[in-house]
Amino acid sequence: MRKVGLILPVLLLASYVLLGQVYRLDEMDLRGMETGWSSPKANKSVDGNPLTVAGISYEYGVGTHSVSHMLVNLNGKGLRFESLVGIDDETQGKGTVEFLVLGDRRILWRSGLMKAGDPAKEADVDITGIKLLGLLVLDGGDQNYWDHADWLMGSFLMESYKPSVVMSQRQPYILTPPAPLSPRFNGPSLTGGSPKKPFLYRVPVSGKRPMAFTVKGLPKGLTIDKDGVIRGIVSKEGKYKLVVTATNDHGKASKEITLVVKKDAISLTPPMGWNSWNCWGLEVTQQRVADAGRAMIEKGLADYGWSYINIDDGWEADKRLTDGSIVCNEKFPDMSKLAKDIHADGLKIGIYSSPGSLTCGGFLGSLDHEKQDAEMYAYWGIDYLKYDWCSYGETSKKYTLEEYQAPYKKMEKALRECNRDIVYSLCQYGMGNVWEWGDKVGGNLWRTTGDITDSWASLSSIGFSQDKAAPYLKPGHWNDPDMLIVGNVGWSSSLHPTRLTPDEQYTHISLWALQQAPLLIGCDMTQLDDFTLSLLTNDEVLAVNQDIAAQPVKRIILQQGFEAWIKKLADGSWALGLFYVGSTADAPEDYFAWDQNDKARELSIDVQSLGLKKGDYSVRDLWRQTDLGVSKEKINVKVPYHGVVLLKLKP
Ligand code: GAL
């Protein structure tokens, strides 16, 4: 393998060194470079290997992953930008991308489509007079799988000015008003469970502790404890009206909650909880899961209905016992105890497996052991199973519907025969339009996409494409566009704050609320900061997610870069998200925030263009929890770049 070090760049820049100063791309602040997967690396590929393209290694440069972009302030003092570009050999033949260099919104240079194995191309771009320079890697039009893109030996030749990266991350700002100290019931007025199976429900009430709970109308077999946790077994099917009352030093509140006792009446509203994957990845441990459960209570999240503590991949051993039973690896010394402790707090616990012989992380899957595994989960006290396709088949191959469904049906039967209610989460990335049939194989939720990561490219491409699945949701059966990427995430022991800007995080939670997506927090719960907590504890926003009518959300493109997502709520009002999406691959300049200081846009929208009847509506801002008055046929708002205004409209 040849190695290219300093000779080439010296030659490339030789003609300029006397005119200006050279600044290397790899020495800049790469926290400002956005990637569609993982994080950018100086002098390494995105996977951390030496930068290598078409058999040639390069000493310096930046390894990234499409869609990737970075904005650089040149202050009009640039002369040339030079770099070689290509797909890193580590993808072993996979991936297609296109590299672009933009200056003050104009495309200055583009590589054309590049495939893995193509020799590096040279960008040699005149940047005289340019104030802001954008470096962009697009996905080549075929999603961003394996798009490991390298900027090799990238350098700026500058005239007496040090170029700096424009950071997109702005200061977090909290919109959610603090909760009152007096008791306030949060969450839907509906819960459910099967007859003759254990029932567990922590009534979500915020307010100062200690708090006392009483309940009227509890069916035989159930009790409520001092923390407001209802548990027990009901033998008779029925619809029970419970009236729960909570009292503390600051006041008293009551709420009627309908308890539906009916076979498999679970997840009547989208599951809310935590999952280990987006923070710990395969480095999940029993302690980390237990800590997440504790934090769910201590940070007050349980008071808003957050209830599942889910273990993702990485708990399983790599060998079964001689009788075929599944066992945990050494990181999970006692699964029964973990479940017991989580249940003691009124929370529920989830687990993960695959219909294949191995999980995606290479641990034991459930192939040919479905019944045995389901029984073991029930024995441990598990309440939720995420069942991930992984080694069961190929993701690039087309199967028949029967083939897609077979493994999920098999586990469905095993789960439903258990002596516990177990929420069934299908994970097969949307293959065969799973949203059209997920309920037929007993799915309470089904992933509609590939994995999400903490970048705007990932969030927006997943979030804004879910209208396809929207008509299929119904109580007990939900579309799952993957887990939340707020807070400290990392897919391993090394965590970092989400790379989404605060406005992008408001977009994330608002979109997931409007789509009634399952809400699974993906960060380290012990490190929740006030901003992240405020995103997860806005009762009016969560109420949209938990709305019992389960009406499909509708997507309306308002104008280039702006979308409205609107849905009808159970009380006859409408939830409306107005989003300033900005970027589209057709307009590469939209990937960049060229106007850092003026990124918000005024919108004036005619209610009829949203499909609503002509007339006046009272408008409430759900994040701020304030009334904005009555709209006179038009709704006027200012929407932040990549952000949202989330409203409730009452006719
Ligand atoms: C992926 C799945 C992720 C995570 C991971 C575990 O297939 O989409 O959400 O579960 O496997 O290995």
Coarse structural class: alpha+beta
What's the structural domain tally?
A: 4
Number of helices, where a helix is a run of at least 4 consecutive DSSP H or I residues: 10
How are strands sequenced across the largest beta sheet? 31-30-29-28-27-26-25-34
Radius of gyration: 26 Å
Tell me how many strands there are: 42
Overall geometry: globular
What is the name of the CATH class of the largest domain? Alpha Beta
- Provide the CATH topology of the largest domain: TIM Barrel
Determine the strand fraction and express it as a percent band.
Answer: 25-35%
Distance between the termini: 70 Å
List bound small molecules.
Answer: beta-D-galactopyranose
CATH superfamily of the largest domain: Aldolase class I
Largest sheet: 8 strands, parallel
Helical amount among residues, as a percent range? 10-25%
Outline the low-pLDDT stretches.
Answer: none
CATH architecture of the largest domain: Alpha-Beta Barrel
SSE layout and pairing:
Layout: E1 2-4, H1 7-14, E2 21-24, E3 41-42, E4 52-53, E5 56-58, E6 61-65, E7 68-73, E8 78-87, E9 96-103, E10 106-110, E11 114-115, E12 121-126, E13 132-138, E14 148-158, E15 164-165, E16 184-185, E17 190-193, E18 198-202, E19 205-206, E20 212-216, E21 222-224, E22 229-233, E23 238-248, E24 251-261, E25 272-275, H2 277-280, H3 286-298, E26 308-310, H4 335-344, E27 348-353, H5 370-380, E28 384-388, H6 401-416, E29 423-427, E30 445-447, H7 456-463, E31 478-480, E32 488-489, E33 496-497, H8 502-514, E34 519-521, H9 530-536, H10 539-545, E35 554-559, E36 562-568, E37 574-580, E38 601-606, E39 617-621, E40 626-631, E41 634-639, E42 644-650
Parallel strand pairs: 1-5, 17-24, 25-26, 25-34, 26-27, 27-28, 28-29, 29-30, 30-31
Antiparallel strand pairs: 2-14, 3-6, 4-5, 6-14, 7-13, 7-15, 8-12, 8-14, 9-10, 9-11, 9-13, 16-19, 18-22, 20-23, 21-22, 23-24, 32-33, 35-36, 36-37, 37-42, 38-41, 39-40, 39-42
Helix pairs in contact: 3-4, 5-6, 7-8, 8-10
Bound molecules: beta-D-galactopyranose.
